[in-house]
Amino acid sequence: MINKQIDKLQKLLLEIEANIIYKDVENLKVSTATIGWQLDHALKVFNTVCNLLAASNPDTYTSKFNATRSFIFLIGRFPRGKVRAPKKVISNTLNITETTLINQLNEARSGLKIIQTLDKHAYFHHHIFGNLSKKQTFRFLEIHTNHHLKIVKEILEIHK
């Protein structure tokens, strides 16, 4: 099961990489942000979550039922425009460079290698979903990354 999740995340990272060349493309009908911002944010979240998961103490993991998490994980997508991301994962620059995105992408690939070796009770605390176990974290990263890649696809679709 974990290997399938890792494969999905690796494919999503490849998709991010393939879209870096469009980093300056925007379409205000879809989003006020550029494709570069979408990719930057997705990678910032990916890397922050990997770091938090790796730094967690599995012995302190506790799980509580969370209806919002259960619903979102079941449908596999986030409703657009309903939640604002924490400030630490929002880009504070409008000039996102290819180098910055590639560096973050490399960090994400390294982080993915690290987190797949962690205890199943490694976790991170999400501000809405509560504590997410390693398995739940993989699902969160998949849904979140897909969310931003769908926006990228919509921007490109209208742009062409």
Q: What's the quick description here?
A:
By secondary structure, the protein is mainly α. Helix content is 57%, strand content 5%.
Strand content: 5-15%
CATH class, anyone?
Mainly Alpha
Overall geometric form: globular
**CATH homologous superfamily assignment:** dinb family like domain
- The CATH topology comes to Four Helix Bundle (Hemerythrin (Met), subunit A)
Protein name: DUF1569 domain-containing protein
Organism: Pseudotamlana agarivorans
Please give a structural write-up.
This protein is mainly α. The chain has a single domain, classed as dinb family like domain (Four Helix Bundle (Hemerythrin (Met), subunit A)), CATH 1.20.120. The chain is built from 5 helices and 2 strands. The chain has a two-stranded antiparallel ribbon. β1 and β2 form a beta hairpin. The chain is globular. It starts with a helix and ends with a helix.
Architecture blueprint of SSEs:
Layout (H helix, E strand, L loop, with lengths): L1 H18 L15 H21 L11 H9 L22 H18 L7 E4 L3 E4 H26 L1
Antiparallel strand pairs: 1-2
Q: What keywords describe this structure?
A:
160 residues; mainly alpha; two-stranded antiparallel ribbon; 57% helix; 5% strand; globular; DUF1569 domain-containing protein
